[in-house]
Amino acid sequence: MTTKLIDLDADPFALFDAWMRDAVAHEPNDPNAMALATATPQGLPSVRMILLKGADRRGFVFYTNLNSRKAAELKANPHAALLFHWKSIRRQIRIEGPVEPVTPAEADAYFASRSRISRLGAIASEQSHPLPDRAVFEARLRNLEERYPTEDTQIPRPANWSGFRLVPDSFEFWQDRPHRLHDRATWTRTAGTDWTRQRLYP
Prior knowledge:
By secondary structure, this protein is an alpha+beta fold. 28% of the residues lie in helices and 35% in strands. It has helices spanning 12-26, 69-76, 104-113, 116-124, 134-147; strands spanning 33-39, 45-51, 54-56, 59-65, 79-86, 91-101, 161-166, 170-175, 183-191, 194-200. Strands 1, 2, 3, 4, 5, 6, 7, 8, 9 and 10 form a ten-stranded antiparallel β-sheet that branches. Helix 4 crosses helix 5. The longest helix has 15 residues, at 12-26.
């Protein structure tokens, strides 16, 4: 990829979109994969890989079981951080900010777009909770397959499955350069749509 310096005059959302397009063109698997970091009310951190499912100027959207660990931590401490790392293009982006729930209509629309098995899996899974035996989960899934036998069968979104939107108040763009002389730049929201821009030492 190019070794051109990061443009500090760029809009951070437009720059994210441009880097994501490059990742889609070059990253072999899941260019929308990102690490999501949350914390408990006591400040204990946890992080996991998830998939970005929507991005615009309102923020960055992901979905989960609302009884999962990540959802419980976000309810208790509604702030999070995202990290995109694309080894193929030698770039990464960190995004931080408060988190808010998506609307029921947004959750319904995304749930309906998923494959039948993915929707049934979301209903069958008690995400993050102890599973006594894998056979228990598979039996629950088989029962749901019998209840909703075809791809065009209407499958209602369960009440405990929805999404969150991280509203960014900071971005950090990182680009690899030879000899570890990397290029880093931050955008920090000051008020409304205004951003303070700053290049960082590698």
